[in-house]
Fold each of these.
Amino acid sequence: MKRGSRTFFITGTDTGAGKTILTALLLDHLRAQGENAIAIKPLCTGPRDDVRLLQSLQPGALTDDEMNPFHYAKPVTPLVASRGRLKREHIVSAIRQREGECERLLVEGAGGLRVPLSSEAAGVTWDEVVNTLKCGVILAAPNRLGVLNHVNLTLDRLKTIGAKKVFVVLSDCNPPSRRDASAASNERVLAGFWPETPFLKLPYLGSNLGTPEKIRAARKKTKKTLARLVSLL
Ligand SMILES: Nc1ncnc2c1ncn2[C@@H]1O[C@H](COP(=O)(O)OP(=O)(O)OP(=O)(O)O)[C@@H](O)[C@H]1O
Ligand SMILES: [Mg+2]
């Protein structure tokens, strides 16, 4: 298998797009199948909730600092939170260090694909990290009004950098009572724009999903979708 082909970067159309829940479901699904899958969140700004949830699903695999080597308390973009000290090479080597220690590496980004990370050259964003690693990309997108524009922009950028394995997961982050009218047609419209990109859908999985018990229950409910996603990776 080619280097990086077992590494998947989970990005989102925005912050709060469903990256952690998707990463947690996929991680738990792979591990339940007996695969030695590991999730990392190389950069985290603000509270370390994502780190805690993902770590609870892979107990003993990595220390919090191995799983999340760069943590900044200030909830702002990594470029600002790190006061410009973070370099692209730091991020790439933190990810590469974990490749080879597992069968599948899931890397949750921070924010979306073009979030400023470092001020080197013209400014480094996640797409450069993806391009260096040559890894697959899973785009988490909330199935609501506005998602078409955000998915199109993100997929345009991934196409520009020549990303090969790209998947989109549309999640119903709102309960049915608060779902907007676009939710019924977003997937169809996007599939028309991107006929070669697989689109998968996750249903609304309840509130307060941030515990391992809730993720396990949600993983069982979404087994078919997760199995399909894994079969495509
Ligand atoms: N399928 C779903 N069903 C119900 N709620 C969901 C679903 N997916 C995500 N959510 C909720 O949406 C919110 C944002 O999800 P999540 O934390 O995964 O986003 P994120 O992209 O990781 O955010 P961040 O940028 O903070 O890392 C959370 O409250 C989460 O529980
Ligand atoms: Mg997250």
Amino acid sequence: MRLLDTLWKALDERLELAPLVEFATHKEVPQHRHSWAYYFGGLTLFFFAVQVATGILLLLYYRPTAEAAFESVQFIVTRVPFGWLVRSVHSWSANLMILAAFVHMFSVYLLGSYAKPRELTWWSGFLLLGLAMGFGFSGYLLPWNELSFFATRIGTDMTSKVPLAGPWLLTFLRGGEEVTGATLTRFFGFHVAVLPMLSAGLLGLHLGLIQRQGMHVPGHLAEEARTRKPLRFLPNFVLREGVVWLFGLAVLAALAAFFPWELGNKADPFASAPAGIKPEWYFLFMFEALKLIPATVLGIEGELIGLGAFAVGGLVWFLVPVLDRASAHGRRSRLFLALGWGVLAYLVSFTVLSFLGAFQ
Ligand code: HEM
């Protein structure tokens, strides 16, 4: 104990830590009937931490070339002790992280937490979700198997439809005209260097803003929050969040152990694409909607119209804190509440219907 006291005193003298501890011990989290929503951002953070830890372990053996990538993953899952488990945890946790981020986004949206003064928190969160999907897309190609190869070919092909910049974007992503070893090396660079660096910066901003501004209490729950005793952040909220993390870990461990992530067959660029190929579940809402649009509408390519509509939709979602007039007064309007439920209904129904094979 004396050693710890001395260490603490030495650090405090140099870094003035006492005010930080004072802040953390006095910080409180409001309580009301929807305070369960405050745990989902933390759960997303937990899966992100799992991704970093397991990703570093995979890096010890993974080789990012078209000749060696598949074989190196095969080596990891068959020869490296617990390699199959690490890979399975990494793949499952990526999916759970994106799921948790979506639940988090819709819960903060429906509670109106994007309203003034939390616009920057909303924008940084939106970009973080974009990066998380980028992690998923770039990581999917890395094992260099059949499914990932053809899904990447279809996914990157979409970018060529972008007016003017399309062909340039396609070459930038693929490192050439086709999906080749150059694409794999690029995706590897995005996955382990560019995206982690951007995420670390944005995550710091997102979490810093939340610390600075405290948790949002929706207007209609303000009275309830006033009458209920707030939870102390340290130790009570942190301990409860810990229970949520343990639950997340249990689900992750069960999925990874009982349903090990498949590797499939090595990609063969000269083979024809397997029938019924689909992207990861979090892109299905876009993929299936694009398939429903006729090939040409009024002389314009259907896919272009679809992609344009998604770009506008994404921009509206991003700009919600400025488009919703009530946001300037710290509230969320009924119109935007309806929009949130509408978007959620669309995402869930298209994803579920796609799994049920309704769009064949
Ligand atoms: C992808 C990684 C993300 C991580 C790790 C993360 C993490 C967190 C954490 C720990 C909190 C505080 C606890 C809570 O309210 O749940 C929070 C709050 C918040 N997040 Fe995120 N978040 C992420 C993505 C998003 C997304 C996609 C959005 C929306 C577009 C978003 C918007 C917000 C907002 C507005 C708050 C403030 C909530 C309040 O004050 O009540 N976040 N985030």
Amino acid sequence: MNFAPQDLDMAEMNLCSPDTDSVSRFGDLLDTAVRKLADLGRHFSSDEGKILFLKERLNEGRFHLAILGQFKRGKSTLLNAFLGEAILPTSVVPLTAIPTFVEYGQERKITIRYQHNRPSDEFSNKSLDEINKILEAVVTEEGNPENHLGVLQVEILHPAPILKHGVVLIDTPGIGSTFTHNTQATLNFLPQCDAALFVVSADPPLTEVESQFLQNVFPKVSQLFFIFNKIDYLNDREKEAAVGFFKKVLKQKIPSTEEYPIFCVSARMGLDSKMSNDPSLWGQSGIDKVENHLVCFLLSEKTRTLLDALAKKSLDIIAAAIMKLQLQITSLKMPIEDLEKRLGLFEKELKNAERLKLSAQDMLIGDRKRTLALLEEHAETLRKASEDHLSKAIDRSFSEMSNGTVNEQKILDVLGEEVTSFFGESAGRESSLFARLVASTLSPHQERADDIITLIRKAAADLFEIPFHAPDSSEAFETKRRPYWVQRKRVPSLPVVVPEEVIDKLLPAKTRKTRLKKRLARQIEALTRQNVENLRWATLQNLNDAFQRFATTLDQRFEETINATHGAIRAAYVKRKEHTESIDENLRRLSVAAECLDKIRSEIAALNTK
Ligand SMILES: Nc1nc2c(ncn2[C@@H]2O[C@H](COP(=O)(O)OP(=O)(O)OP(=O)(O)O)[C@@H](O)[C@H]2O)c(=O)[nH]1
Ligand SMILES: [Mg+2]
């Protein structure tokens, strides 16, 4: 079975060339919207800023193609295969920690951008080896643990032909590893993606973390390609079965992803082929098909996809601004008594919404308490499991020592290793368990918050008899991604310090053994206590932070909605009271702006973006 689409020839590519007229028309429409919003003053400056940002994206004309997926699926290797050389660090342990943007340049050049406006570092004229070292020190978890260097992003210029079509390929940190801050870095970065290559592999085909991540990615990027990597591990029959299974799971979990192409590749083989100049391997790697498809896609669809993504975003911003204008216009037009009456009714609705918000907050506090209580239960279970595990390991070490001899150092080494591996593994398991728990706990709160916001907007629209626009789902996603797991606190493996008991050496072997066992029991208890506490404390901070961020975001959204409705009506009401003479002029200005924005909205909606 061939899962890759047929190669398209050049003639076919030319048939679907991008519609440049639509792009320039869209640019003009955004410019006009910016001017109109700027004229409307400070009430509309945030809408103006959002449209300006979209215009910048359109002007840049660059297309952000992100390589996404769970850690260790081979994302960095795939990007290297496209570039034809092993530029980006790859490893068997979770590695990439900083989003890395690769775009066309005649010579290789690296720019490292830092947080807090710190000046960037630039490196050019470097050998592949030197580039490797620089990147290893900056973009990897090992070289730059928890991003202590404060790197914002890394940009690489590279002469690979695939980049000539204006695409920026982006390597992202893998999601779902124990390094939860890497998951966060990728989630934060999603709004900048225009399309994505979602990398999976057969081992296993689709994890729960991946399917959850896909559900987040899916509404956010306009175009998605699946890359089924590491096929070199499989024969044809196994490959068919694995991909079939992947498709089945995908269909069950996210039915709407069905139409997206799946490419079977071996990124490693692709890279080897380019590095050893062996074209036969290139064909076998399957990367040729991805490249052909991408080139065609980039030639034909790039502009349209970008246009489509930006148009959707702009329609939403403009609709919200129009609603604000319509509320003001209606408020300025209606008899003042009528306005006061409707304002009063709306304020009652707001009180109702406020009550709902308070009870939503209570529920959130309740859920937070329950989650924290669960954490305490887990800590207790972990404490018991650790003591049990470490005691058994020590007993095993004793019994493995022949004819009653006791090698104390060896036992201490075993204890040190067991502590590190037990708590390393527990930290990973617990952090992903609580990350999932937080996400599923917050999801109904998100829905409840959306309902309250819709209620306010709908009440304003009904009372003032203006059209109602439901908020876009992307807004919901923005808030959803924030409460995701936020931080990692390293769980240090504690040094196993057993004081040198010189005196023991003088005692008979049996007494020595008993004394050592007692000491070890105390040691196990202390190590367990400290490590469990570290883990509990780190998780507690993460939980508190996640709930706190969520609550703050909800407050902000609530406040924004009230400003856009009640704020707009009140502003009109105050004008009516204070400046009766300028009302007509005001009304004319707002009506012209609303009409103009509405026209812009219809024109954008009618653009040929597909
Ligand atoms: N057999 C095989 N191994 C591969 C292939 N692609 C990548 N690998 C190996 O898989 C491991 C992980 O590859 P990376 O490219 O570092 O994976 P990643 O998805 O970037 O990982 P993170 O940066 O941690 O998210 C490395 O040991 C690669 O050599 C492939 O096609 N076949
Ligand atoms: Mg990587």
